[in-house]
Each structure stands twice: as C-alpha cells, then as structure tokens.
C-alpha cells in the first residue's frame, strides 16, 4: 500500500479537533488514509476525514440536497454523455452548417473554464470570431439546461458556495489541503466559505539532501528500458523497496510501457502484480467490453470484415469453443466471399460450416441466439428497458460465459454491468431525442458512456509503480526515476483553449496559457517529487528520431551531474549461444520430389527471376497475403473481366473472316460485345460484391464494351488468322520442376503459330532481353508447346494503347520481326535461361538479391519477412525512375 510523504505528527494535528484533509485526487487521499492507519495501535478506529476534492464536493452536495429537496429537483446533475449531446444540439441550433461533434468537446471545456473562474460570456472579449461564436453557443446551451431543469457541476458548486456564505453555522472548523498545485477561483472560494480556517500540509522533507542524477540515454525507448530495469533490479535486491517510474507522456506510451514492463518481469522471474501501471484506459477499449459493443452493433447492422474477425477470435462469446484450425477456416471463408461487411448470422453460419459437430458454437445455442435477435431487437423502448434487453441479448450470445475469468477480466465484466446500470438511469430530454429510443440510439448512448468511463484493474501490493507526473506528487518512494524531462516537456508547453482569447486567459491565470505560470508549476513539481523520494534520478534522451533533445533548464538547479549512457540491449534480444557450424542463410533445402508448392504456374519462375528469397517465401512457405475485401473494382479484377469477355467473344475456331462479317453488321457486333461483357460481369459477381451494385456493373460494362470494340477494329487490320485455341492448358517439365500453364490464345496465321497473352497493364518486351529473364511468362509459353510457335506477343488492351507487342518471325509481327534463324536462337536462349531459373529454385537458392525492382515492389507485404530495409539501402530515386 502506498503511503503519503507527510510528517505523521502534522497529519495527526491536521485531523485533530474535527479537522478535514482534502487531496487533489483519490490516489493521494488513499495514501494519506494509509499513512494515518499506520499510526494506529488499536485494531479498530474511526475513519479519518480525508477526502479527494471531488469526493468532498459530492458529499457536501448530498447534504445540501437533503436540506433542500424541492430545489434539488430543479438542479439535477447533468450526465457527461447528455452534456455532450446538449452541446451538439446548441451548436447545431446556432450554426447548422458546422459539424457540431468537432466542437462540442472544446465548447464544453471553455464553458467549464468560465464557470470555474466565476466569469460569464458577457465578460468575453469578442474581437475574435471564435469567441463570438462560442458566446452564442454558450447562451443557447444555458437555455437548454434551464429547459430541462439540469445543472452543471460548477453550477452546483456555486449553489453550495452561496449556501455556505448564507449559513455560517454550516462551516467546519478546520481544513488542511495537501498536494495541490493550484485551485480554480470557484473551488477556492467554496473551500474558504465551507471552513473557518484553512492550512497546508507540507509534503516530504523540506530540505532534501540526496543527490539527483541526470542521465542521457540514446533515445526514449532505451530511456524507458533503463528506468524500469533499474527499478526491478533494486526490488529483487531489496524486496521491501517501493519504486516509481514517472513517465511524462504516459498516456501516449501506454502500450510501450506495458510491453517493456512485462518482458522485464519475465526476465527477473517476478509475478505480474509486482508492477502497477497507474493509467486508465476507456472501458470501451477493454477486451470483454469491446466484444460486447461489437455484438451490439452486429445486432442492428452488418459489421466490417475487421470487426467480424475481432469477434471470430474473441474468447468471450459463442465462438470461444472452436479450435484454432476451425477459426482460421472460417476467416478464410469470410475473406474468400469478397464481401466487406457481414451480418451476425453470416458470421455464425461461416463458423458453423467449418466447425466440428461437438465444437462451439453449438448449433442449438447459435440458433437460439439468432431467434432471440429476430424477436427482441426491434421497436422503441426506454433506456432502462433497453439495458435489460441488451443484457439478455448478450447473455444469449454467450458473453463472458465460455470459460472462467481471471481477476482483470472479472473486473471488466463488473464495470460493464455497472455501465448498463448507469445507462438505465439516463433520462435524455426531448431536446436530444427523449427517453424512448430505438436500438441504434440506445447502443449509441451506451458506446458514448463506455468511452467516458475509465478503467484500471485493481492491483494487490505492487512494488513498482508506473505513473504519470501528477499521480506521483505527494507519494513516498524509496526510488524514483522521472524520465522524458526535455525542455519541451518541463515546463509544460502552452495549450490554451482556442475558443477563448489567449491574452484574456492569461489575464485570468487560466491553465496552460502562461509560460511564467507553467514554469512555477514545473519547479513546484520538481521540488515535491524530490522531497518525496529517498533516491531520485531524472533523465532526458539525446534524441527522439531525428530531433535532438536538450534537458529541461529547470534541472540545472537540482541535478548535480550528467551521465550519458550507451544504448543497452534488452536481455530478451541478447544472443549468447555459439553456432557449432557456419550457417548459409542464402540457401534453403533443395526442393523435395513430393513437396507441395503454392502454385505451379508461370508466376513461380517470375518471382524467382525477380528475387529468389521472395519466391521461396511465397511458393514453398505459402507466405501470401490474406484476401482483403475490395471497395471497388481494381486492376486485377478488370483484367480478369476482360479475359473472360474475350474468351466469350472470340472462342476457339473464330477466323478473321468471321470477325469481318460480324463487324459488317454494327447492330450484331454491338449485341455480341455487350453480351460478352455482361456474361463476364455476371460470372464474377459471386466472388466480387462491388459488381453486385448496378451502378458499378453498368460502369464496368461500358468500359469493357469500349475496349472490346477497339480491339475488334484492331484485329480487322491484321493478316488473315484463325484462333486455334483459347485458355489452352499446357504442362511442361523443366529439369525437376513441373509446371502447369494456361495460354490465353494461340493464333494460326498461314502455316505459323502465334502465342498471345492478353494484358491490361503496361508491358515491356525488354524484360526478355539480357542474361537473366525478368518476365519469363511468354518465353515459358513459347518453349512449353509440343509444336514450337513462330512468335509470341502480348495483346495490350488499354485506354491509351491497343497493340500487339512481342517477338516473332516476319510473317507474324512486322513491327517486331526477327528472321527464322534469329527466332530459333531466341527460343534456344530462353530455354537455357528458364532452365537456369528452374535449377535455382529446385536447388534452394533463396538469395536476397533483387533483380527486378518493379516486380519486387508488388510484393511489399513480404518486406516484413525479408527485412529488405535492414540489408539493402533504398535505391536512389533517380535510378528508380530510370
């Protein structure tokens, strides 16, 4: 249990004669109570009058309400959720063109400042447009408050102040404040009116004698690691030691702090409750609550794929009993559908399809849950009734009922239940929608409530406390390390409210508006933390990324020495084992005869030609990205649609003469082209949901028709030909590598064959030149046929290019002709180059060399595995463009 850094005799004197001690927060108030308890020799004693300030105000307001029940009805406290909605209504009434949700929070903060400083909008300088707008919003907000008979917390405090002034007999004798940096005028006046005498309880040793060490780690990550490591090392050596690491920007680094603490706990083999991370997250972000809110959204509307996957792997509902293999199969089924959103029934259906009979969700449970959803989740109810329905619905879907919960999970569930109880007490006024709402509005209220409700698991008796700056003030620690103390952090940077004039805020000494005031607060914090710890260390990293950092100038007065620390390697990254033999990490095991490959098409050799290691990852380890839902129609789908349409429009056996006859009848040509495009789109709709929208399908059909018509006109200008084969399957053996290919089209021109591959992207036949093939697709087709062709070409179908681009004999492609001898030499060279690529792949060549930067860029998802950035500097931009 933490104790306060106060003199026990001073604390006893402050509480004597019915004295009251008030602290700024619950943490320090609890520490003061613990310090008081440590002085008591009896086993039972009266609870001391020690409060957090908000706690004392709430207690006093309750007393006032008991004395004035009639007036209390007219000053009901306004819930923060309703306050935000009331601000949105006020802003919308004044300026409907604005997005009220963007300004509601700022307006609420500005209004709170005015009330805490006992000011009104009439006193605002209105030279700035923002201040004038805020004044209009504020007046409308107060009108809405009066209409619903509610009051802000500051209005209640003003009522208390007036009551204490009018009733001196209600005053208490003595007040002692402990740990306050400053007080707003309203709260200060309230305390002065409520107590006849007011004093201060000093914290720590007023003349600390310890030396404060300033250290300069290389960067913030190393700084954090050093601080936590040093604290845990001392705790191991001195089990009774209580240490603290104060992180100036704890809220921004919460995940990083938690991760490093967990790893160091494992390194020192300490239990998890040794460390207490004293920072709260919104209740909405906790795993059980996040699962609950996603289920609630799924009750009313389809969920995005990401949310469905979150639910699928969540252990807190019906899906928890499925095996990992079943969950993975369900995910792949969802992804394969191509949809971007799914109903809850579709998610359960996908899971039930792949799950074993005995697995969860049991068919009866899932069926019963869906029946409940269909029967109950509709209509309009009060929020109190919706709270009951929500609880019943989540119970039907097995929320938190699939296994035993640990302590943190149980606390989450308990807080969730309290949030539902709080939802039941909300009474929204008619001005923000009224009490009777539909399911969507009820869930919206609940989500806003959860976002405002903080959650921090209760810890046992931790020895290391990871705190923010204000949370540490006033607590006693044997060792304290305050990190991140750069000149940008201490004194704190200014952050005035943008709706109020900066000069006006400074004139009233409002928070974060004046450099001099922030410097005083910074000096006071340094003095307090130093006097409340037996040993203190402060630190400032040398740099944060590319930015050089300087220590806070306030440290010069207390830090006697500076020490620069080298970058330390965390123990979980240290490698001390010795290799017994050299490891060649450029070569994988040779391909086994029965080894399964991800694919055996031309893409395999294309990847090997581009970057061997990526080919190994993709083809042998199946390291391929998971399918993502497409929002629209991408290049790959457009290419597939064009292939299918051409397959329908120009089947095997079609001759140039037949094509000319078709083109002679424009109506017949238009009908054939439209039919081919429509058939391709219809065929693709099942796996490509964007095409199910009529507007998207009609747009794609127009694009397809235009390209097909332009291609037909291009074909009419060629020499006489007959399409001999379409989508021709071919198998080939190159050394030990067997490949299965599909050739888009083979034309017969006189006595010659031309292999054609349709392309909707840019092509470069120079990829076939040089010592190493960069794009082996067409060379592979040309060498795989039993009857070697006389040429090969890409058929380019783009909005800016309709052409045949390839290499062939003079009778086939006049623009890219080579002699018969030249063509045979080209085939022989390709055969040799393909043999080399196949031998590389089969032998396990997995080098990190990049031969084709453009192709490698299409495999950017593999960079997390091949770690290209670590072993090869980025190419010069000018070279990349070239």
Automatic annotation (TrEMBL):
<dbReference type="Pfam" id="PF12705">
    <property type="entry name" value="PDDEXK_1"/>
</dbReference>
<dbReference type="InterPro" id="IPR011604">
    <property type="entry name" value="PDDEXK-like_dom_sf"/>
</dbReference>
<dbReference type="InterPro" id="IPR038726">
    <property type="entry name" value="PDDEXK_AddAB-type"/>
</dbReference>
<feature type="domain" description="PD-(D/E)XK endonuclease-like">
    <location>
        <begin position="612"/>
        <end position="841"/>
    </location>
</feature>
<dbReference type="InterPro" id="IPR011335">
    <property type="entry name" value="Restrct_endonuc-II-like"/>
</dbReference>
<dbReference type="InterPro" id="IPR027417">
    <property type="entry name" value="P-loop_NTPase"/>
</dbReference>
<protein>
    <recommendedName>
        <fullName>PD-(D/E)XK endonuclease-like domain-containing protein</fullName>
    </recommendedName>
</protein>
<dbReference type="InterPro" id="IPR019925">
    <property type="entry name" value="DNA_repair_protein_predicted"/>
</dbReference>
């Amino acid at each position: 249990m933490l104790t306060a850094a106060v003199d026990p005799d001073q604390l006893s004197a402050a509480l004597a004669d019915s004295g009251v001690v008030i602290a700024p927060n619950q943490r320090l108030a609890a520490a003061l109570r613990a310090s008081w308890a440590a002085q008591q020799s009896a086993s039972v004693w009266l609870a001391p009058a020690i409060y957090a300030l908000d706690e004392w105000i709430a207690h006093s307001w309750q007393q006032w309400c008991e004395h004035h029940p009639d007036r209390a009805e007219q000053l009901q406290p306004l819930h923060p959720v309703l306050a935000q909605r009331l601000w949105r209504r006020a802003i919308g009434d004044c300026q409907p063109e604005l997005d009220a949700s963007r300004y509601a929070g700022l307006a609420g903060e500005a209004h709170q400042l005015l009330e805490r400083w006992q000011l009104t909008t009439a006193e605002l300088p209105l030279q700035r447009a923002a201040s004038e707008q805020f004044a209009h919003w504020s007046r409308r907000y107060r009108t809405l408050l009066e209409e619903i008979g509610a009051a802000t917390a500051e209005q209640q405090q003003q009522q208390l102040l007036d009551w204490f002034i009018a009733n001196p007999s209600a005053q208490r004798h003595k007040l002692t404040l402990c740990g306050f940096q400053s007080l707003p005028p309203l709260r200060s006046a309230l305390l002065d009116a409520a107590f006849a005498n007011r004093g201060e309880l000093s914290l720590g040793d007023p003349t600390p004698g310890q030396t404060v060490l300033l250290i300069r780690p290389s960067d913030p990550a190393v700084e954090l690691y050093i601080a936590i490591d040093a604290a845990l090392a001392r705790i191991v050596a001195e089990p009774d030691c209580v240490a603290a690491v104060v992180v100036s920007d704890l809220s921004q680094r919460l995940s990083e702090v938690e991760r490093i603490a967990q790893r160091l706990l494992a390194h020192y083999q300490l239990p998890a409750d040794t460390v207490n991370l004293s920072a709260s997250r919104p209740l909405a972000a906790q795993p059980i609550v996040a699962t609950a809110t996603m289920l609630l959204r799924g009750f009313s509307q389809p969920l995005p794929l990401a949310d469905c996957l979150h639910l699928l792997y969540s252990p807190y509902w019906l899906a928890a009993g499925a095996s990992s293999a079943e969950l993975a199969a369900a995910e792949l089924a969802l992804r394969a559908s191509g949809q971007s959103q799914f109903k809850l029934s579709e998610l359960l259906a996908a899971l039930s399809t792949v799950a074993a009979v005995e697995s969860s969700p049991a068919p009866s449970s899932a069926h019963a849950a869906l029946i409940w959803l269909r029967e109950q989740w509709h209509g309009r109810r009060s929020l109190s009734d919706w709270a009951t329905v929500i609880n019943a619905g989540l119970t039907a879907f097995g929320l938190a009922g699939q296994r035993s919960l640990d302590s943190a999970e149980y606390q989450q569930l308990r807080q969730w239940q309290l949030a539902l109880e709080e939802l039941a007490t909300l009474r929204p006024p008619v001005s923000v929608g009224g009490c009777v709402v539909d399911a969507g509005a009820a869930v919206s209220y609940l989500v806003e409530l959860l976002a405002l409700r903080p959650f921090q698991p209760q810890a046992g008796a931790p020895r290391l406390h990871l705190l923010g700056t204000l949370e540490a003030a006033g607590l006693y620690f044997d060792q304290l390390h305050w990190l991140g103390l750069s000149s940008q952090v201490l004194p704190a940077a200014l952050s005035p409210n943008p709706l109020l004039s900066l000069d006006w805020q400074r004139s009233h000494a409002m928070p974060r508006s004046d450099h001099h005031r922030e410097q005083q607060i910074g000096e006071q914090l340094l003095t307090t933390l130093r006097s409340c710890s037996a040993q203190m260390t402060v630190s400032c990293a040398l740099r944060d990324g590319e930015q050089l950092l300087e220590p806070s100038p306030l440290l010069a007065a207390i830090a006697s020495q500076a020490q620069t620390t080298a970058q330390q390697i965390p123990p979980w990254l240290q490698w001390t084992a010795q290799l017994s033999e050299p490891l060649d990490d450029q070569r994988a095991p040779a391909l086994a005869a029965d080894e399964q490959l991800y694919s055996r098409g031309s893409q395999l050799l294309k990847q090997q030609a581009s970057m061997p290691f990526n080919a190994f990852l993709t083809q042998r380890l199946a390291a391929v990205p998971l399918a993502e839902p497409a929002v629209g129609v991408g290049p790959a789908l457009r290419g597939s649609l064009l292939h299918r349409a051409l397959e329908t429009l120009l089947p095997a056996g079609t001759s140039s003469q037949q094509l000319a006859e078709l083109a002679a009848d424009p109506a017949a040509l238009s009908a054939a082209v439209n039919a081919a495009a429509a058939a391709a789109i219809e065929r693709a709709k099942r796996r490509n949901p964007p095409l199910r929208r009529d507007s998207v399908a009609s747009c794609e059909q127009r694009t397809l028709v235009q390209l097909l018509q332009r291609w037909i006109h291009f074909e009419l200008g060629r020499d006489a030909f007959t399409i001999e084969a379409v989508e021709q399957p071919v198998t080939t053996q190159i050394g030990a590598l067997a490949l299965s290919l599909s050739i888009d089209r083979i034309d017969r021109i006189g006595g010659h064959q031309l292999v054609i591959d349709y392309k909707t992207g840019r092509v470069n036949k120079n990829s076939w030149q040089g010592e190493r093939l960069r794009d082996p697709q067409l060379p592979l087709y040309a060498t795989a046929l039993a009857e070697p062709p006389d040429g090969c070409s890409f058929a380019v179908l783009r909005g800016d290019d309709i052409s045949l681009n390839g290499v062939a004999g003079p009778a086939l492609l006049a623009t890219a002709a080579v002699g018969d001898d030249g063509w045979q030499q080209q085939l022989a060279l390709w055969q040799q180059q393909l043999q080399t690529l196949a031998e590389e792949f089969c032998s396990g060549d997995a080098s990190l060399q990049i031969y084709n930067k453009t192709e490698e860029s299409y495999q950017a998802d593999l960079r997390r595995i091949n770690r290209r950035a670590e072993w090869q500097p980025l190419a010069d931009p000018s070279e990349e463009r070239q």
